């Protein structure tokens, strides 16, 4: 038996899972009607949501699509930016900015090589990641917004709400809630 095999088998099961499959965390804000974006931007301005995003993603590798990356004000400090794109020239344009460019979701996860990975959008990237996601950090916006990027509601049969922090709206914006969802364990079939 190799030393590596003995070490791996001595790890507790949860550590083994982290080594083999990172915790995949979808981080998003979604309006009541499913809108997550309009013309490459958030269609609302909620400073508390931006602070929450910073807190949730700090020190994590973030996987995003090119449009999401382009919507950022720049490279965000304290996070790795892994950008998925079909454009083979994108790396040459932005390689020196601390941006890691990949061309598939599997490649993005391999590049992240971390126990926790934040998926920050857009809609196509969320759709790719959802079947493998373990947790969702959702800002529920209690209003409808027009937009061109949407994410459907999460199935309560698959996702359990484990935390909710509600915030009242006011003159500067709608009410919203920070919601944590975790994937329900699948029941064994008899």
How does this structure look, described?
The radius of gyration is 18 Å and the shape is globular. The N terminus is likely disordered. It has an eight-stranded mixed sheet, with helices on both faces. Strands 2-8 form a two-stranded antiparallel sheet. Helix 4 links the parallel strand 3 and strand 4. It has seven helices and ten strands. It is of the alpha/beta class.
User: How many strands appear in the DSSP assignment?
Assistant: 10
**Element pattern in H and E:** HHEEHEHEHEHEHEEEE
Main sheet: strand order: 5-4-3-6-1-7-10-9
Helix count, DSSP H or I runs of 4 or more residues: 7
Shape: globular
Beta-strand percentage range: 25-35%
Radius of gyration: 18 Å
Distance between the termini: 37 Å
Helix content estimate: 25-40%
Give the averaged pLDDT, no decimals. 87
Q: Uncertain regions: pLDDT < 50 for 5+ in a row?
A: 1-19
Largest sheet: 8 strands, mixed
| Helix/strand class | alpha/beta
């Amino acid at each position: 038996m190799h030393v590596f095999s003995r070490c791996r088998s001595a790890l507790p099961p949860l550590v083994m899972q982290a080594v083999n499959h990172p915790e995949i965390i979808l981080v998003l804000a979604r309006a009541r009607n499913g809108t997550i974006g309009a013309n490459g931007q958030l269609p609302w301005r909620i400073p508390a949501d931006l602070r929450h995003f910073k807190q949730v993603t700090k020190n994590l590798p973030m996987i995003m699509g090119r449009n999401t990356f382009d919507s950022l004000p720049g490279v965000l400090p304290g996070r790795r930016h892994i950008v998925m794109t079909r454009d083979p020239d994108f790396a040459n344009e932005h390689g020196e900015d601390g941006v890691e460019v990949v061309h598939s979701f599997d490649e993005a996860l391999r590049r992240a090589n971390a126990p926790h990975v934040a998926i920050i959008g857009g809609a196509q990237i969320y759709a790719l990641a959802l079947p493998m996601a373990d947790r969702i950090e959702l800002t529920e916006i209690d209003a409808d917004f027009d937009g061109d990027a949407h994410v459907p509601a999460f199935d309560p049969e698959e996702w359990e709400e484990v935390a909710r922090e509600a915030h009242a709206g006011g003159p500067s914006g709608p009410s919203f809630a920070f919601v944590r969802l975790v994937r329900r364990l699948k029941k064994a079939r008899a």
